[in-house]
Amino acid sequence: MTDPHLPTPPDSPEAQPSPETADVSSAPMGTPLKSPPVITMHAPSAETLWMEIVIAINYLTRLNLRLKESPRPRFIRKSMVWFPLVGAAIGVFGASVDWIMTQIGLPGIITSAFAVISMLWVTRALHEEEFASMTNQYGLTFDKEQGVGWLKEERSVQYGTLAVILVIIMKIGAIASLSDNDVVFQALITSACWSRAMMVVMASWLRPIPADPVADYFQQPPALRMLLALALGGLITFAVLGSYAAYALAFGTGAGLLITLLGANHLRGYNGPLIGSLQEIVEITILGVILALQ
C-alpha cells in the first residue's frame, strides 16, 4: 500500500500526465495552445424536427396536431424554417381541388373559385384577416389625415373588407386565366411556398412588436434558419417552375422586401397584420408573373 504523503514513482499511472497536460508541457515556447471550438453544431433529433414541423403546420393551417409537451420558445423560433414546405403543401391542396373540379367538367372560373375557397378554408383565412386588419389601420389613418369622414358618418364597410374582396377576385381571375392544370399546380405551389419563405425573412430582420400575438409567439428566428428557409423555398420553386423560377423569385422577393421596408419605416418592427399582408402581396405578385410568362 502506498503512503499518499510520499512522492509518486515516476513510472506509476498516477505520475503520467493527462493528454491535456502533456500537450501543454511538451509544446515548445511560443506555440499557441489548442482551444475548444467556439461554435458547435449538432444535428437535430427526429423528435425535434417533428416538433418544429408540427408548430408550423398548426399555425399556418387549421390542423391541430398534438405534441407531448408545450414547445419551448427556441423551437417555436426555429419552426419558421418549415414555412415554405407547409406553404407548398397548401398550394398542392388548392391545385388538387381545381383539378378535381376540372375533371367534373366545371368551367375555369368555377374551378378557380373552388381552389381559392379551399385554400381559405385550410388556412382559416389567416393571412386574409391579417391583411384586412392592416388595410383598416392605414385606411382609418388616411381618413383622419383628411379630416373628413365618409359623409361624416360611421363607415358601414371597412377598408379591410374591400381589400380582401379585391385580392380574392384577383386570385380567382389569375388562376382561371392559366392555361391548364399543370400550370395551376406550378403557380399555386410556387406562390404559396415563396410567400411564406418571405414571412421568415421579415420575422428575422424586423424586431417583434410587443403585445402582438404573432410577434410574441415567433419572436425572431435565427439567421441560419432564415437562410435555410430561403434555400428550401428556392429549391421547391426551381423544382416546380424550372427556367421561369428566377422571374418568380425576383418579383416575389422584390414585393416582399418592399413590404418589409414599409414595416421598418412605419411600425419599427413586425406584427401579425404586417406579416399577413406580406404573404398576400407576394402571393398575388407571383401569380401575376406566372400568368404573364405562360
What secondary-structure arrangement, pairings included, does this model have?
Layout: H1 19-26, H2 46-60, H3 73-78, H4 83-104, H5 108-122, H6 126-146, H7 159-177, H8 181-205, H9 213-218, H10 223-241, H11 245-266, H12 272-293
Helix pairs in contact: 4-5, 4-8, 4-10, 5-7, 6-7, 6-12, 7-12, 8-10, 8-11, 8-12, 10-11, 11-12
Summarize it.
This protein is mostly helical and 294 residues long.
Task: Summarize the structure in words.
By secondary structure, the chain is mainly alpha-helical. It has one domain (73-293). Helix content is 68%, strand content 0%. It has twelve helices and no strands. It has helices spanning 19-26, 46-60, 73-78, 83-104, 108-122, 126-146, 159-177, 181-205, 213-218, 223-241, 245-266, 272-293. Helix 4 (83-104) runs parallel beside helix 10 (223-241), helix 5 packs across helix 7 (159-177) and helix 6 (126-146) crosses helix 12 (272-293). It is globular, with a radius of gyration of 27 Å. The N and C termini lie far apart (90 Å). 37% of the residues are buried. Residues 1-15 and 17-25 have low confidence and may be disordered.
